[in-house]
Amino acid sequence: xxxxxxxxxxIIAYVxxxxxxxxxxxxxxxxxxxxxxxxxxxxxxTGRIDFNLLVKAFEIGADAVLVSGCHPGDCHYTAGxxxxxxxxxxxxxxLDTVGFDLRRIHFTWISAAEGxxxxxxxxxxxxxxxxxxxxxxxxxxxxxxxxxxxxxxxKPVPSAKPSMQAQEQQLRESCRxxxxxxxxxVVIGYGAEGPVFIRRAEDVDKLVWNxxxxxxxxxxxxxxxxxxxxxxxxxxxxxDERALVILEKEYQVDRPNQRVIGMACDGMDExxxxxxxxxxxxxxxxxxxxxxxxxxxxxxxxxxxxxxxxPAERMSWWAEQFERCVKCYAxxxxxxxxxxxxxxADKNRPVAIDTSATPEGNFAWHITRAFHLAGRCIGCGxxxxxxxxxxxxxLLNMTLAKAAEKHFGYRAGxxxxxxPLIGTYAxxxxxxxxx
Amino acid sequence: xxxILSKDALRKLAAEWxxxxxxxxxxxxxxxxxxxxxxxxxxxxLCLEGFIHPANSAKEFVxxxxxRLCSYRLEGNRVELADGGAEIPAQILLGVRPCDAAALPILxxxxxxxxxxxAYNRRRQATTVVTLxxxxxxxxxxxxxxxxxxxxxxGSDVMLFDLGGEYEVRCLTDKGRAxxxxxxxxxxxxxxxxxxPEVKFQPEHIRQFVNEQFTSxxxxxxxxxxxxxxxxxxxxxTCHCFDIVDEGNTRHGERVRNWDSCQFVQFxxxxxxxxPRPDQGARQRQRVLHKFSIYPQKFNExxxxxxxxxxxxxxxxxxxxxxxxxxxxxL
Lengths: 435, 331
Fold this sequence. Notes:
The complex is a heterodimer of chains A (435) and B (331). Chain A is of the alpha/beta class. Chain A has 3 domains: 9-132, 3-Layer(aba) Sandwich (Rossmann fold), CATH 3.40.50; 162-288, no CATH class; 309-408. Chain A has 14 helices and 9 strands. Chain A has helices at 2-6, 20-29, 52-59, 80-98, 115-132, 162-180, 224-227, 238-249, 302-307, 311-322, 330-333, 359-372, 382-386, 394-408; strands at residues 11-16, 38-43, 64-69, 105-109, 186-191, 194-198, 232-237, 259-263, 286-288. In chain A, the strands form 2 sheets. Chain A has a 5-stranded mixed beta sheet with strand order 6-5-7-8-9. A 4-stranded parallel beta sheet of chain A has the order 2-1-3-4, with helices on both faces. In chain A, α3 packs antiparallel against α12 and α4 (80-98) packs across α14 (394-408). The longest helix of chain A is centred in the first third of the chain and has 19 residues, at 80-98. Chain A is elongated. The longest helix of chain B has 20 residues, at 280-299. Chain B starts with a strand and ends with a helix. In chain B, strands 3-2-6-7-8-9-1-10 form an 8-stranded mixed beta sheet. A 4-stranded antiparallel beta sheet of chain B has the order 5-4-12-11, with no helix packed on it. In chain B, α5 crosses α8. Chain B has 331 residues and is of the alpha+beta class. Chain B has helices at 7-19, 98-111, 118-125, 174-180, 203-212, 218-221, 231-234, 280-299, 309-313, 320-330; strands spanning 2-6, 23-31, 34-39, 66-75, 78-83, 91-96, 127-132, 158-162, 166-171, 185-187, 242-248, 252-259. In chain B, β2 and β3 form a beta hairpin. Chain A binds chain B through residues 148, 151, 154, 193-197, 215, 219-220, 223-226, 229, 324, 326-330, 332-334, 346, 348, 351, 354-358, 361, 382, 385-386, 388-390, and chain B through 30-34, 36, 55-56, 65-66, 220, 223-225, 227-231, 233-235, 243, 245, 247, 256, 258-259, 261, 264-266, 279-281, 313-318, 322.
């Protein structure tokens, strides 16, 4: 084919200043020849390579990306490459779900002494990419609208179960006491029309407990408007409570100063409830009611259906989904774990993520949002519930949760004793994808 | 006597418009339970029944979420500047709600006040609005409280009324007549008047309250549930704030305008770090103030058509109506 004969792949290499860059330099000074298709971007350490840069490389026309740093144990900063390795393990899975072609994303360890390895790797990657041809699938919609992924049947109109009414009474009584004796200044709970913030004992009858109590109220703990009301009690379900475990681990809640009222829950008829394992909150100061629900075994879900598609089809599917995104950031605002005072999406000196609701801006935002929650997302699904345009954002988070469990046996918010997944590393982290 | 058009004939007509190269936009069922205004690929995707209001608004078609204003390219010492505007094809908004149609003449004021906004006007002039009158409403609807109603004609070029198997067609402007001329039959059937939602507040009360009770603790107390996203503003037919940003690199790029929302912290933050609207109470108050006091004062129009999209889209079930009925109660 004429095209493959004239096609010269563009490869962007993000390399560590201390090892791979010097390795490439050595290749040059020892006159080792390698294809001129690689453009090197030198960075202080693989641990400092923002994952957005990988995506950005494809946006500006790369056909393949190489990330390369020091061999384990050789990091100039002791452990930067270990941190990078752990992030890559997770990030690859996210890119796979979004539909990037993993054959075009390469990771290597190349030391300052390995000029020959640099030559070999660059030659190999160039040849492999030449075989694959130009990368044209990026953010590409293939036009034929695919049938939707399996979705949960419409929810029946929820009716309060008798036990829920009893729980509601007990909840009100408990909150009445907490407010009357001054234990807390405010109760963050569910009301008939959304969340309520009860500050007087006589108002506790505004609290409700029924199958509409979907919100994860721990999202309010980050709000300064709520913080200034004084010590709060928050009403949580078992699933919501997992967020508190993370927030405490990340120094965002002062647990001894935080009253937690747990509601035993049989499920709210949401898809996530079918596989719930924490029907009864485990760390609450008090738990109201008892759950009779059994955890069902995970059934085929939308993520499995998505992963049946080819990467190009997956990207097309996401491109169709993200096309609806208007960047209202409801996904971010309802998330209990998105608590940054200034989100990276709001940074404008320089702009990290395009504010435009274009394919580039939307992919960048949703990849970033999901990855910032890697090893942190507790799967409450609020992002997808909040999205006015019905984008199943939780699938991105589910991917990362699944990857965290598969590779590290880690489940966010389940065990307060376990150290956070990102921010730590193990010498044994797998590296079968790194050459 | 009235003009009628069968439901099938309307779809055929839409197909005809599409073959003429016109853009036809209307409610589309994106997935079960989610209807959004979108550009029609074929008339089959048009969804005119079985929902109250699409989750978004039709403003997208005159004021898109992302619009290129101009682009630049640097080559050596040469700078090439190009206009942002591609040719706008004639577009027909088909089956929009009266509350979406009414928003257009309201928006015309602000886009043609001291500056004639070319980007907006080009789209607006290319647009014909074919409105489908409402036959039902839900708890979020409050058009009657802002002077509109389920059959309000404001902003429409044509009104359609569902008669069961066909639509009654009332052409209101020449633009509308041009679309339907010779397509309809005369009939004895006419659409009965329908009642809209009960009146839930008086706009005058809101205006008074927001001006007189600017510092009231009401704003803080009643907005605690607001998490500060833009789901209300971005799906509102009348919210029109935007941000102009430059995107690109040292070789080429674009100046674009993107939607913005007064509910974001970033919206008013100064370079110094000071934020004159420091909390969500102040930001929500601003939204009410703009809609019920500032805009009416300037343009003699309430900047709200009562579509209820703010409530329907609020992840926490809040929305403008929660505040407005709260004000009515607080008076």
